[in-house]
Amino acid sequence: MKNAALLLFWLLLLAGVAPATAQRILCSGQITEAGNGHPVPFASVFVPGTSNGTTADEQGRYQLTLPQPADTIAASALGFAPQKKHLTTDATQTVNFTLRGGAVTLGEVTVRPHENPAYAIMRQVQAHKPQNNKRELQAFEFDSYNRVAVSISNLPAKISNRSVFKDMMAVADSKGQPLGPDGKPLLPIFASEVLSRLYVRHDPLRKREEIRRTQMRGVAPRDGSVLSQILGSSFQDWDFYPNWQQLLGKDFISPIADGWKFTYEYDLQDSVYVGKDWCYQLGVAPRRAGDLAFTGTIWITADSYALRRVDLTVAPKANLNFVDQVKVQQELVPSEAASQWLPKRTHVVIGLKPTKGSTGFLADFTTINSNFDVNHPKPLVFYALPVETMPDAYAPLTADYWEKNRPDSLSLDEQRTFAVLDSVRKLPSVHSTLELADIVVNGYKRVGNWDLGPVINTYSFNSIEGNRFRVGFRTTPEISADWLTRAYLAYGTRDGRFKYGVRVSRILNRRTWTVATVERRHDIDQVALLDNDYALENPLYEMSARMGNISNGRPLMRDLNTLTLQTDLFRGFTQKVSLRYQRFNPLYNFAYYNTDVRQPGAPTEDDYALTELVLESRYARDEVLIQNQNRRYAIGLMKWPVLTFRYTAGFDNVLGSDFKYHKFNLLVTQSVKLGQLGRTDYVLDGGYIPSTVPYPVLKTHLGNESPFYNGAAFNLMRYFEYVSDRYVSFRFENHFEGFLLNSVPAIKRLNWRLIASGNVLYGSVSDANRAINPPFDATGTPLPTFQSLGRTPYAEAGYGIENIFKVVRIDFLHRLTYRNVPGARNFGVKLSLQFKL
Which residues are registered as beta bridge partners of 681? Predict the structure, then answer.
C-alpha cells in the first residue's frame, strides 16, 4: 500500500510539474516561394506526427510554441511541395521555409489551434446576403450581349469522311481551324450573337427581355425559331446567391448556399485585389465526390463580404451523363444606386461526350451586361410578355454591325470560328443536314412554305383499321404569321374508311396571346383515352396504346367539332372557352337506356351525341413562355404549383345532343426541389360528375398494359378497368439523383439513380350511373360493363433505377389493393428510355 501510494504521488507530481518545468521552444519565421521570394499566405506549419501546428498570416509569417523539444518542423501550402527542417535545442529559433511549386496532395492532417479561417468568412457571407443579393432590389435592368459557339471535338475518321463533315472541315482548314481548351482542333457547327435589354422586377417577380438584334451562323435553324429566343440573357442567368443553381436540368448547390458547411470544404488560399476590391480567395470542393456541386475558387470582398468573382467547374465525379466538362467564370459589380451586386461578365463552357474517347460537343457561352439601372420598376403590364422579339431583330445587317456593337473583341479562335460558319451554311451538304435535323426536331418536312407531317404518323397498324396510312400538313409563318392551319387525311385498309382532321387558329392579340381556334375531326378513338390527352406524355406508351389490339380500350368512331377562344387575363392566368359538339359511334357492343325507364325491355340506343360548353382557367405563377411567330411554348421547371380548373356543361337536345350534365375537374402539378433528396414531381387530380350519363361520358382512369412506364398513368391498371363519377388521385415520383447510391463503393461508378413512385386513387360511381347501362342488348347478349372502386382506394407503389447505360430506366411496381380482381397484375416491371444529364 505504501509503494502504491508513493507511485501515485510521483505520477501526480510528474503530471503537474513536468509541463511547467520542461523546456519550451519558440519557433518563428516566414514561408516564401522559391522562385520569386513572394510570401506564401496562410501556409500550415506543424511538427510531423503530432497535433502541434499553426497557420501563417497573409505575409507568410508564423510563430509556433512547442511544449517540448522536437527535432523536425514542416511547412506546407496548397500548390506547393511540403518542406521539412531540423530544429536545434535553442529555446528561440528562426526557421524560414522556401517552398517550391508542386502538385503533391498532402496526406497529413493539418490541425489548427482555431477553426478553419474560411469558415468565419463564410458566416459573414451569409450574414451579408441581403445587402448583396440582387434579388433584394426592387427592380433592375441592363443591356445584354450574348455570344454562343458550338463545336464538335474528337471527330473520328469514319464520321469525318462523310460528305457534310468533309466539306465543313475543308472550309475550316482554309480559314484556320480553331482550337479547343485542350489545344486540339475543333470543327465549328453553330454560333449566335444576341443583343437585348433585360428587365427584372421583384415582389411580384416579373421578367421581360426585348430581343433587339440576333444573328445565327452555321448549322442553325431558321430565324424566328424558339432557339433564337432562348439564346438571350434571361436564359443565361447564372446566380449563385440562391441555394441552388439549375444547370442542364439539374439542381447544383451553390458554394455560398445556406447549408454550405454540409456540402463543401473550404480553404482560404490568398487575399488579393480583384479590380479595386480587396478580396479573400477561397478554394471550394465538394465533401462527397458524387454530389451535384462545384469545385474551384471564389473571391469574397473583404469589406462587404459580397461575391466578387467565381471560377468554378463541376466536380469531375458528379453524377451526370454525357457531360465532359462544365466551367463557369463570372464577375460581379455593385450597382451604383444600391449595395447589391449584378453580373457584369459570365463565361460558361460546357462539354458533352457520350462515352470516353467518343465524339463530343463543346458549347461556349459569353454574356456581357452593361448600362445598369436599378430600383425603377415598370408597371406590371409591361412584363406581360416575358420574351419579345423586336420587329427588326432579324433584319439584314451591315458587314461591320457586330464589330461596332459588340462590347468586347473576338479572340483569334473566335474570329476563325465565325469565318468558318459564315461559309459552311452555303454548302449543299450542310443544307441537306439542316433539313434532316428539322424533321427530327419538329416532326415535319418543309416543302416550300408548307410543313408536311408529322412524319412519324405516316404509317401505323391496329386491330380495327389494319394498315393505317396518313398524310398531313401545317402552314408556316411564311404563309401567314397570324393564321395556322393543320390538316390530315388517313385511310385504313381493313375497315376501308377515310378519316380526317382540320384545325384552323387565328392569333388575335399576341401580347395577351388571344387565339381563336376551329377544329373538325372524324377519326377512331378509344373510351380509355378520352379526356386523358394531357396524360399521354410518353411517346412509346401512346404508340403502344393506339396501335396493335385496341379492343381493350373500347374503340369508337368520333366526330368532333370545336370552337375555342383563349386569352391571358394577366401573366400566368389563362382562360379558355370552348363550344364542342361530338358524336360517337361505338365499334364494340354498347347500349344505354334512352328513357327514364331503366329495366330489361326498355328502349335503348347505341350511339350518342354531346353538346358542351367547356370553361378552363389555368394559373401558372412565374411561368416562362416564349413564342415563335405563331406558336407559344412553356419551358423550365415550375417553382410554384400549376392550377388548372375545368368546368364542362352538357346540354340536352341541342344540335341533337342526348344528355344534360355537369363536370368539375381540378388539376394541380408541381416539381418540388428537395435538396440532397433530389426532386419530386406530383400530380393531384380531382373530379366530380353529379349527373346521370353512360359510362363513356364518365371518367375512365388511365391504365397501362404496355411494357413502357408512363408517369401519368396507373401502371398496373388495365386500359379500361375502373370508371368514376367522383374521384381524387395523387401521383408522385421522387428522383433521388445520386443520393445513397453515390455512397456505395461498388455501385457509384455506374452512376445509377434511385426512383420512388406512388399512385393512390379514390373513386366511386352513383347508382343512377350504374342503372343507365343495360346488362343485355336487344338479342339477349351480355353487354360489356365497367367496374368502379369500392371504399378501399386503388394504390400502387414503385421503386426503380434510372440512368442504366445512361438512357434506360426500369421501374418495379407493386399493386397494393384490389389484388384479387380477375386479371389483376400485382407486380410488374416497366421500361422506359430517357435522355437525362
Answer: 671, 733
Confidence (pLDDT) at 13: 31
> Containing H/E element for 5?
helix 2-21
Yes or no: say if 394 and 224 are a contact pair by the CB < 8 Å rule: yes
The backbone torsions φ and ψ at residue 787, rounded to the nearest 5 degrees and listed phi first, read: -115, 155
Confidence of residue 388 (pLDDT cuts 50, 70, 90): confident
What is the value of pTM for the model shown? Answer: 0.64
CB within 8 Å of 159: residues ≥ 6 apart: 165, 359
d(CA 276, CA 156): 48
Give Cβ neighbours of residue 741 (< 8 Å, ≥ 6 apart): 747, 748, 750, 752, 753, 754
CA–CA separation, 435 and 446 (whole Å): 8
CA atoms within 13 A on the CB side of 460: 22
Distance CA 703, CA 712 (A): 9
Which of 575, 579, 560, 474 has the alpha carbon at shortest distance from 519?
560
State how far the Cα of 325 lies from the Cα of 317, in Å rounded to an integer: 11
pLDDT for 230: 46
Which of 549, 835, 541 lies closest to 714 in space, CA to CA? 541
- Longest CA–CA span in the chain (Å) reads 118
Distance CA 125, CA 130 (A): 10
Q: Which run of H or E residues covers position 171?
A: helix 163-175
pLDDT of residue 181: 60
Instruction: Report which residue type is found at 749.
Output: R
Which residues on neighbouring strands pair with residue 797, listed in sequence order?
758, 814
Say how far apart CA 386 and CA 570 lie, in whole Å. 12
Burial of 386 (0-12, 13-18, 19+ CB in 10 A): buried
Q: How far apart are CA 623 and CA 620, in angstroms?
A: 6
Is the distance from CB of 67 to CB of 24 less than 8 angstroms?
Answer: yes
Instruction: Assign 19 a pLDDT band (cuts: 50, 70, 90).
Output: very low
Tell me how far CA of residue 356 lies from CA of 322, 353, 359, 809, in angstroms. Answer: 9, 7, 9, 22
Q: Is 636 left (phi over 0), alpha (psi -120 to 50) or beta?
A: left
Task: Give how far the C-alpha of residue 757 lies from the chain's centroid of Cα atoms, to the nearest Å.
Answer: 19
Cα distances (Å, whole numbers) of residue 267 to 36, 43, 576: 23, 11, 56
Is residue 351 within 8 A of residue 325, CB to CB? The reply is yes
Strands (E), 621-772: 624-627, 632-635, 642-651, 661-673, 679-688, 699-700, 723-724, 726-735, 753-764
Q: 163-175 and 428-442 are packed helices; what angle lies between their axes, rounded to 10 degrees?
A: 120
Taking the C-alpha atoms of residue 111 and residue 130, their distance in angstroms, rounded to an integer, is 34
Q: Closest Cα partner for 201 from 391, 2, 458, 382?
A: 382
As a whole number of angstroms, the distance between CA 381 and CA 759 comes to: 40
**Helical H segments across 378-442, by residue range:** 401-405, 412-424, 428-442
Residue-wise pLDDT for 540-570, tens only, equals 666 677 777 788 889 999 999 999 999 999 8
- The lowest-confidence range among 138-152, 541-555, 812-826 is 541-555
How, if at all, do strands 387-389 and 206-218 pair?
Answer: parallel
> Side-chain half-sphere of 623: how many Cα atoms within 13 Å?
22
Please say if the pLDDT value at position 8 is more than 60: no
Q: Decide: residue 172, CB within 10 A, 0-12 exposed, 13-18 middle, 19+ buried.
A: buried
Cα–Cα separations (whole angstroms), residue 790 to 229, 418, 689, 763: 51, 67, 17, 7
Local structure of 376: helix, strand or coil? coil
Are 332 and 344 spatial neighbours (Cβ–Cβ below 8 Å)? Answer: yes
b/e map 599-630, b = 16+ CB within 10 Å: eeeeebebebebbbebebebbbeebbbbbbbb
The three-point CA angle 445-447-449 to 5° equals 115
Residue predicted with more confidence, 443 or 437: 443
